[in-house]
Every structure is written in C-alpha cells, then in structure tokens.
Write a structure and sequence with these properties.
Length: 389
C-alpha cells in the first residue's frame, strides 16, 4: 500500500506520517520509491521490534549500492527484491518528491548507463535540500514553497529527458544540433530553478526580519557586536600578558573602534553605550586596559547621540523630487534612500549599469535605490548623465 498521508515538516524523524486522517496507524510497504527516506522497518505481518534501515550503506561500484538492516544480532544486507516483505515504521522526512522518481528515471534514460541509480540520487539530494530549506521558511509559506519547488523540479526533469548522449544512444544518425538545443534549454531551466530558490529564500529572510520588533533587532545587533568585541578584547589582553605573540595590538583596538563607530554613525545610542560599558568592565579585570580612557572610543556615545539628532532632522525633511527624461529622481529622507523611478522598465544594459553603481531594485517602493549619501548623488549623476543636481 502506498503512503497517502499529509506531509508536514517535522524535526528529526517523522513518525506521524504513518497515520491516516483518523489517526489510525497505516501500513506502508518498503519500496524503491520510498526507501531513500525510511529510517526503521519490520517484517510485514509480525509484531517484531522495528530495526534500523540504512539506504545505500555501501557503494560496490558505479551505480551499485548495498542496503542494510541493523538488528541486535548484527547488520545484514537487504536486497531491493525483498523490500516488499517489509513495512516502513518510521521515516526521516516526508516524501515531497517521491512521485517524481519515474520522471527522474526517464530523464536519465538517454544520458546515463545507470538511470535508476541517478534518478534515486537526484530525488534523494533534492528532497534533502527541500527539507533543509523548509526549516528556514515560515510555516504559512511552506506549502507555497513545496508546491513551487515540486513544479519547477518536475519541469527540470522534463527538460533533462530531452537531452541525450551518443555514448548511450549510439552514434548512428545522432542529431547533435537538436541535442545542443535541448542541453541549452535544460541549462536555462536549471539556472531558473536555482535562481528562484535563492530569491524565495531571500524574500523569506526579509519577511522574517521585517516581522521582528525593534527590541529584537537591537538585541541581535548587540549580540553580534558583543561577540566581535569580546574576541578582539581577549586577544588584546593575551598580547598584553604575553600569551599571544606576533600580533599587532593597535589593529585589534582599531577593529573595536571602527565597528562601534559604525553604529555611532547610525545613531544607535543604546548599542554604542553597551559596547562602552562592556569595555569598561573588561578593563576593570585587567592590569593594563585593552582600550585606554583617553582613546576616542569613550566619546562614541556622545557622537551617537549627535548622529541620531541629525538623522531625525533629515528624516523629518520633505521629500525632494526631480524629473528627468524617462523618469523621476526622489530624495526619500524618511527611508534614507536616493530613488530612481523609471517611466518604463529599463533595458538589460541600463539595469547592469545601475547595479554596478550600487543601486538595487526595491519591490516595496518600485524603484531603484541606494542609501542617501553624497556618493549616491555622484553615482546618479553618472548613471543618468545629470550634471546639474
């Protein structure tokens, strides 16, 4: 009997996959389609204790593998022809791509001497990748991701099925031109699939970041900075006590100063004050202070307060707009961004040029933008050939 239960992302093993909608335990036969994700099995029709199953425990040659079961009396080989005598008791993860195994086999029929082994490898590796991706994606977006991943992977296999190798098909009347087109199409599908995956994951990261409270963001930023400061401060102390030799003390002091100065320039008063308090406490435990009191490091909290006031004044300013041929240039003070709004989608060459000058596309504002700095103004002059800004 095949598995017809809901697919839910779980940590570790997925024992609940063995239950139907009413919660009743189901019997799932071990097959070549589900073997790659099975953790425990037992002989069908018995109440024996489940034993560990190891898919592809050993490789005995090209496309040849040995599967084993691990019981109390030792480990023994289990041949695929005997799978039907066993039932799966526990899975490692849901079978999101299990139904595509035959499509994967057909995809390699013309270009591999071991299409079944290659198909199993692809399904196993891509499904593991999918499971790992889902751990980083919010629960409300997981079904959407699984559906799109399945669809795009299916299209990838379908494209691969049109690619052939004369080593497999034989050289007689082999159509190289048509095959080259098929290979190019497959490469395009492959690139599209992985570009989509990266874009989706990046969007999920932005969504999770946007959902965080300001307190969470501040705490995470401080923890990252604290780890860096602790490492540098400890190295400085080791240099002072002779435990570390061959290092430049001044470089580690500058590292701490520069990192905290970055936060000061952004008006992050609370983080900067925590950094100064941390170094003050660290100094109190050392004979020689890691950063001396006369260093401008201890003036950074005041610099941060001044930067915050200046930023608040800037963000309260009314946005400025400038029309140019083909669009509008916007000084968005509240978002702290210099934005370019084109009347029509720029061509590939223009988009490459924008990216080379540090501009990025913002779906939120529907604009090409970068942080509002003097360098951004210089850059937009060159990109748009505007000299009278």
């Amino acid at each position: 009997m095949t598995e017809k239960v809901g697919k839910t992302v779980c940590e570790g093993t997925v024992a609940d996959l063995m239950k139907d909608k009413t919660g009743k335990q189901t019997v799932v036969t071990l097959t070549r389609k589900n073997a790659y994700r099975v953790k425990k099995i037992r002989e069908q029709g018995t109440d024996d204790e489940a034993v560990l199953f190891h898919f592809r425990k050993r490789c005995t040659g090209m496309g040849s593998y040995v599967h084993t079961i691990e019981a109390a009396d030792g480990e023994t080989e289990l041949h695929p022809s005997e799978f039907e005598k066993w039932e799966a008791v526990e899975f490692l993860y849901p079978g999101y791509l299990e139904d595509l195994l035959d499509a994967a086999y057909n995809a390699y029929r013309w270009n591999s001497f071991e299409p079944e082994a290659r198909a199993e490898t692809d399904i196993m590796q891509y499904e593991k990748q999918l499971v790992e991706d889902l751990k980083q994606i919010p629960e409300e977006k997981q079904n959407e991701y699984v559906s799109a991943y399945h669809s795009k992977f299916s299209a990838l296999l379908n494209s691969l099925s049109r690619c052939a190798s004369p080593m497999v098909t034989g050289p007689a009347k082999f159509n190289c031109q048509r095959n080259n087109k098929a290979l190019d199409a497959y490469q395009n599908r492959f690139d599209e699939f992985h570009d989509w995956r990266n874009r989706f994951k990046a969007a999920m990261e932005r969504m999770k970041e946007a959902a965080k409270s300001e307190e969470q963001k501040q705490e995470e930023a401080w923890n990252r900075l604290k780890r860096d400061i602790t490492s540098s401060a400890q190295t400085i102390h080791d240099i002072d006590t002779g435990k570390a030799r061959g290092y430049s003390r001044a470089l580690f002091v500058s590292s701490i100063l520069n990192k905290v100065s970055t936060y000061a320039g952004k008006g992050e008063v609370e983080i900067v004050q925590k950094a100064v308090d941390f170094i003050t406490d660290f100094n109190a435990q050392c004979k020689k202070p890691v950063i001396t009191p006369r260093n401008r490091f201890f003036q950074l909290p005041e610099m941060a307060r001044q930067a915050r006031l200046k930023l608040q004044e800037i963000r309260e300013r009314e946005n400025r707009e400038l029309k140019f041929e083909g669009g509008t240039l916007v000084w968005n003070y509240e978002a702290d961004r210099l934005q370019i709004l084109f009347d029509s989608i720029p061509d590939d060459q223009r988009r490459k040029e924008l990216k080379s000058y540090g501009f990025k596309w913002s779906p939120r504002y529907q604009a090409w933008q970068r942080q509002l700095t003097q360098n951004a103004v210089y850059a937009v002059k060159r990109v748009l050939n505007l000299q009278n800004l």
